[in-house]
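Researcher: I'd like a candidate sequence for this fold, 161 residues long. If you have to choose between options at a position, lean toward the conservative one.
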């Protein structure tokens, strides 16, 4: 019983230590993205990551995957944007090109955070309309990226309302 209490105490201590405040999302807005109706987003590669633990000599693991362009598309289409499969010259004035990239990593607690930056570019003028940066931290890198994208886009969308 003493061993179970000790392990429980260590687990709780590790969870408290791992709780790290994420930096607040930041955004720059030169124009409202609501002036646009369509988005064009290049496909991104899926990332699969896993986490595991050994209990009584037995290793247990689970894996998760994320495709950043799918997460971005889902959030933006939920907010009324229409995704184009290819750029249409007739719709350039109403189209945003959306760029995604991982822009940093920061040690935090027992792990680290992943930072992403998303740009919104006018397809007609090739000028920056808005951009946002946010970080995320979860059980796996896939969780980190999904959380960072969600926090980033929520920052841009909330500033447009």
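Model: Candidate sequence:
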């Amino acid at each position: 019983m003493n061993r179970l209490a000790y392990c429980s105490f260590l687990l709780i201590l590790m969870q408290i230590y791992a709780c790290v405040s994420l930096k607040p999302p930041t955004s720059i807005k030169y124009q409202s993205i609501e002036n646009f109706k369509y988005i064009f987003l290049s496909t991104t590669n899926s990332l699969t990551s896993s986490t595991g633990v050994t209990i009584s000599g037995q290793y247990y693991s689970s894996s998760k995957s994320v495709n950043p362009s799918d997460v971005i598309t889902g959030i933006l289409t939920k907010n009324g944007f229409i995704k184009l499969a290819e750029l249409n010259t007739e719709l350039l004035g109403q189209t945003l090109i959306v760029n995604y990239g991982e822009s940093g990593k920061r040690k935090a607690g027992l792990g680290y955070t992943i930072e992403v930056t998303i740009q919104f570019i006018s397809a007609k003028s090739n000028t920056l309309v808005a951009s946002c940066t946010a970080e995320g931290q979860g059980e796996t890198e896939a969780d980190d990226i999904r959380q960072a994208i969600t926090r980033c886009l929520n920052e841009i969308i909330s500033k447009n309302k």
